[in-house]
Amino acid sequence: MPDESTGQEPAEVTEEQEPTTQEEPKGSTDPWSDPEKARKEIEKLRKEAASYRTKYREAEPLAKKAKELEDAQKTAEERLTAQLAEEQKRHGALLDRAVRAEVRALAADSFADPGDAAAFLDLGSYTSEDGDVDSDQIKADLDDLLKRKPHLGKQTEPRRPAPDRSQGSSGNHKTKSDPADAFAGFLNQRIAGR
């Protein structure tokens, strides 16, 4: 029945139209089910993160001072041990570099790319305990590598391209004609086409 004052039918009040709020059980801690609770949780987490950042900034100089004090309290033996470890690391790197240079120098004559030789060999096996580089062993291993992988070596003679008869004017199977005949055919076409 239409309402006489508005001309519309009265709206039926149903349970669906009433705002419903679901009461979460007291044990539920899911803040993401309600946007307002989610916003509050995000704000809380942001404040917490900001406080941790502030604490970190305050503690960072103290950590540096503690490290300096720790280093100062190290015994001379500990400092020398740390220096020795650093020097041994540098010495090993220099030996590797020297071996790599020796391999490249010896491979330059017979390899197309001397860097390939260094990639295929175990460079750590060419130094003695006193730090000398064993050039004779490197030469023997390079010769062995070229025997196993000859494609790494230099070309002994320049490659000549193999002729391909299907290329060029001879590949279209036309018979060779006399240039005079070709010119005469051209003139005949021009005269006839006038």
Notes on the structure:
The radius of gyration is 44 Å and the shape is flat. It is mainly alpha-helical and 194 residues long. It has helices at residues 35-73, 76-107, 114-120, 135-148, 179-192. It has a domain at 35-152. Residues 11-21 have low confidence and may be disordered. The protein contains five helices and no strands.
Fold blueprint:
Layout: H1 35-73, H2 76-107, H3 114-120, H4 135-148, H5 179-192
Mean pLDDT: 79
Determine Rg (CA atoms, Å): 44 Å
Structural class: mainly alpha
Q: Element order, helices and strands? A: HHHHH
Residue ranges: pLDDT <50 for 5 or more in a row? Answer: 11-21
β content, as a range?
Answer: under 5%
Q: Sheet bearing the most strands, described?
A: none
Report, as a whole number of angstroms, the end-to-end distance.
Answer: 98 Å
Shape: flat
Helix content class: 40-55%
Q: Tally the beta strands.
A: 0
Protein name: Scaffolding protein
Organism: Nocardiopsis alba
